[in-house]
Structure formats: C-alpha cells, structure tokens
Design goal:
Largest sheet: 4 strands, antiparallel
Distance between the termini: 29 Å
Oligomer: single chain
CATH architecture of the largest domain: Orthogonal Bundle
Number of strands: 7
Strand content: 5-15%
CATH class of the largest domain: Mainly Alpha
C-alpha cells in the first residue's frame, strides 16, 4: 500500500503531507511503551475497530480523526455506503501511519535537529498576526496537537527518504530505453501565453473594452478592473496548452494573433477580454531536454513501487484485522 495517495487509492506521504496530516496524535497501543500498556490493562477496554499485531486499535482514535477531517475538508459522504468507505480509508491510513512510526522507532530514526523548529517557523510565517491561532481555534485543535501531527508527518517522510527512497536509482540505460519508446509523448504541444480581464457584467466589459481601444494599457486595465486573482499581475495567465483552461479560453486565445485584444467573451466566471502575448508552436524535445523529465518520472515510479512493497511487508507482518461491525457504528461528528 503506497504512502502517496489519499482516499480511494494509495494512501501515504502525500495524503499524510496535507497541512494537517491524516494521522492520530495518540500513538496506537501497539507502538506505546510496555509499561504504559500495563498501566492501561486495569481500565475497561474501549471499543476497537481493528486489531494490529494482536493489539486493539481503539475506536475513539478513529472518531477523533474523523471529527478532524470533517472540520478541515469538504468530504461529506452522501450515504452510509460512502461513509463506510471514507471511514475505512481513514482507518487504513491511521494504521499505515502507526506501522511506519513503529518501524522508525525500532530503527532509532528521529527527525534531524532543528527540523521541527524550522517547520513551525515557516508555518507561522504564512499566518501573520494572530491568524495562525485563529486557524487552530477554527478547526478545533490545540497547538500541541498541531505540532505533534506535523512531527509525525515529517517523521514518516524522513523514514521513507532515508530507509526506502535513498536506495532507489535510475540508470542511464533505463532513461534511454524509455526515451526510445515514448519519444512522441515527450513532444511539447502548442502553447499560448495570454492575459485576461474579468468583470462581473457585460456593461462593465463594454466600458473596459472602450478604454482599451482609447489607449489604456492592457496590464493597467487588468490591475484596475479585473476581479480575477491574476489581475494584480496584469492579467497574465502564463503559457498553457489546449485543454488545460476552460474551452472558451482556448477558443479565444488560440485563434487570436499575438498582440491582438479579443472582443467580450462570456463564461461561467464573468465577462472576459483576452490579449495574446506570445505563442509557442508544437515541438519535439531532444534527448538532452527529455533526460531530466524521464529521470523524474522513472524515479517517482520506483519510489511508489518501493513504497507499496514496504507498506505491504509492514502490514503483512502486523497481521491486521478490521472489525467492520464496529466500524459501521462509528459516526462522523461535525
């Protein structure tokens, strides 16, 4: 099972690498010190949704994670069957996380000194003033829990980077063989670089177009009138091939000559005026240009395959059993 995908597919580092990972702050009992496990024997056993290496996986850990996911994502199951799939996917991710953390602990792998401090500094820099604390209150999580989630996510990434990915390599022969087979796919398609101005009504667009024809510079008009985020950049959309932008963008921009301003183009987003800045014809990449692209693709595949194999081995050794009846009883609290 991979550590690179989220619900419905492979689960892993990418899924765990969201701003707040799909990980439990509490470590699964199978990963806790034995003394702590012995102390907990005296308490009544809470309901469990799974058994991992003979140890129960408490339902309340899953419930906390589900509450967190409900508060921080747009996931809203439409029926019981879909809800069960979501719950099972998150449970599987939590189990994977606990297995990787246990493996890291067994090997004595820890985060390099200063990594967590730099991570938190970078995160806080994204939220000036008090907005970082406001965010934590909004998603109902303490700063301590936030830090622990980040630490676990970084430790999982560090474990795979040092123990699994560091052993992978792509040879020159593999790159050349891939190039020979996929040379046509490596061709770059026709691209256009365009800018646009978006306003809310057709009357506003008529006014803007009139000013453009009277001599107002396009980038200045975009900064002054456009409601699109790229308006502050003069409306520049950068280069894009066909099929990436909405169809109305392609029709307007690929048919316009360079330097030409379009008429008013309505869309679901508002009323647009486009200007074509540059065009690039379709072109074939040579081996030298394709080399780094192929190397990245092949390395990524090797990472994913190594991840799947390693997670499969960890799960097989753990002897995991999921209690579907108890899983159905768990509810997603919002």
């Amino acid at each position: 099972m991979s550590v690179h995908e989220n619900f419905g597919g492979r689960r892993g580092i990418a899924a765990l690498g969201m701003a707040l990972s799909l990980a439990s702050v509490l470590v699964h009992p199978a990963c806790q010190p034995r003394a702590q496990q012995q102390e907990e024997v005296q308490a009544p056993a809470p309901p469990s949704v799974a058994t991992v290496s003979g140890q129960p996986f408490p339902a309340d850990l899953l419930e906390r994670e589900l509450a967190f996911v409900a508060a921080t994502s747009a996931i809203k199951p439409q029926n019981e069957e879909e809800e069960l799939r979501v719950k099972r996917s998150i449970l599987e991710g939590l189990i994977d996380q606990s297995l990787v953390l246990a493996a890291a602990r067994e090997k004595g792998i820890e985060l390099p000194e200063g990594v967590m401090e730099r991570e938190m500094e970078a995160l806080r820099a994204q939220y000036p003033d008090q907005s970082f604390e406001e965010l934590l209150r909004e998603i109902r999580i303490s700063e301590q829990e936030f830090i622990e989630r980040r630490r676990q996510r970084l430790l999982v990434e560090h474990y795979f980077a040092t123990e699994i990915f560091a052993r992978q390599a792509v040879t020159e022969a593999e790159i050349e063989a891939h190039y020979q087979v996929h040379v046509d796919e490596l061709s770059a398609p026709e691209e256009v670089r365009a800018a646009h101005i978006v306003v809310s009504t057709n009357d506003e667009a008529i006014t803007v177009l009139r000013e453009l024809k009277a001599g107002l510079k396009f980038d200045e008009a975009a900064r002054r009138y456009s409601i699109a985020p790229e308006g502050r950049l003069g409306g520049d959309l950068g280069f894009f091939p066909r099929g990436v932008m909405p169809p109305v963008f392609d029709k307007a921009c690929f048919e316009l000559p360079v330097g030409r301003v379009s008429e008013i183009v309505p869309s679901d987003y508002g009323f647009h005026i486009f200007k074509v800045l540059e065009k690039r014809p379709a072109r074939r990449r040579g081996y030298a240009q394709s080399h780094p692209i192929i190397e990245r693709q092949l390395m990524q595949r090797k990472f994913e395959e190594a991840e799947r194999e390693h997670m499969s081995a960890l799960r097989a050794a753990a002897k995991i059993s999921i209690d579907l009846a108890e899983l159905q009883r768990v509810r997603i609290r919002r």
